[in-house]
């Protein structure tokens, strides 16, 4: 199964056609395209229309999560609907199962959020603002965990915008790690297992890491992968196949 992925394309209202030419032969290289959030610059409907036009009808299924930039104009619900109207599956605490070459590819996704990593993280304590900040991560990590738990597929991928681990943040200033991801996302992934975890958001990070449980993590923020999309080839493991 060839899984193409990219995040942080940050398309503006004037970006129409920027990615489309490079995506024309996507079906020759991949069976599915995953979008790891920050599809827009400031989350306007005009930008989302450009995103929809760039990624609609590519000849392979497109599955996305939104990023923090896509929330900036408080239009995330409309953006989700607009992308869905163009055949792009947008996940938030939900999962989808696609059939690829007769095998089931399950993708569970959430935007995720910050909070930091074990020993250096926010907690839901004190001022209401702090409790809300920390609780948002907890809620979205729970959403990812239950979406993963409900999947029955031969290959499973966890798709987030924020990072589930700190490995892939190397290159970013350590002071901002708590705004780049949360270990709770990594725990949600390890609790249920996955064959691959994809995220974006850390433009100055590195591509490769693993969760504490040993699951491969790839930061596909476009400035990190330095190409239109990365492709990861996964063999069906049958680990979640219902009849075995
Ligand atoms: Fe970004
Ligand atoms: Fe981001």
From TrEMBL:
Q: Which GO terms describe its biological process?
A: lipid A biosynthetic process
**SUPFAM superfamilies found in the cross-reference section:** Metallo-dependent phosphatases
One GO MF annotation is: metal ion binding
What are its GO cellular component terms?
membrane
Query: Per the record, a Pfam family?
Result: Metallophos
Per the database record, which ranges form the Calcineurin-like phosphoesterase domain?
A: 1-204
Q: State the source organism's domain of life.
A: Bacteria
- Does this entry carry the keyword Transit peptide? no
Q: Which PANTHER family does the annotation name?
A: PHOSPHODIESTERASE YAEI, TRANSMEMBRANE PROTEIN WITH METALLOPHOSPHOESTERASE DOMAIN-RELATED
Descriptive protein name: Icc-related predicted phosphoesterase
Native source species: Nocardia neocaledoniensis
């Amino acid at each position: 199964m060839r899984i193409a992925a990219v995040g942080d394309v940050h398309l503006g209202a004037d970006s129409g056609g920027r990615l489309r030419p490079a995506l024309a032969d996507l079906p020759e290289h991949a069976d599915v395209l995953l979008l790891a959030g920050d599809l827009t610059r400031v989350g306007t409907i005009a930008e989302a229309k450009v995103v929809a036009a760039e990624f609609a009808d590519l000849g392979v299924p497109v599955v996305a999560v939104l990023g923090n930039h896509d929330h900036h104009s408080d239009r995330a619900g409309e953006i989700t609907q607009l992308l869905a109207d163009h055949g792009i599956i947008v996940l938030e605490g939900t999962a989808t199962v696609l059939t690829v070459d007769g095998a089931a590819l399950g993708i569970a996704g959430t935007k995720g959020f910050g909070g930091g990593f074990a020993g250096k993280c926010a907690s839901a304590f004190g001022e209401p603002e702090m409790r809300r900040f920390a609780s948002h991560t907890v809620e979205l990590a729970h959403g990812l965990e239950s979406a993963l738990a409900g999947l029955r597929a031969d290959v499973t991928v966890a798709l987030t915008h924020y990072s589930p681990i700190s490995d892939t943040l190397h290159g970013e200033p350590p002071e901002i790690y708590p705004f780049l991801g949360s270990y709770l996302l990594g725990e949600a992934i390890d609790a249920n297992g996955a064959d691959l975890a994809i995220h974006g958001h850390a433009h100055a990070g590195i591509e490769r890491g693993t969760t504490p449980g040993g699951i491969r993590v790839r930061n596909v923020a476009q400035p990190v992968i330095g190409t239109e999309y990365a492709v990861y080839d996964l063999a069906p493991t049958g680990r979640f196949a219902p009849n075995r």
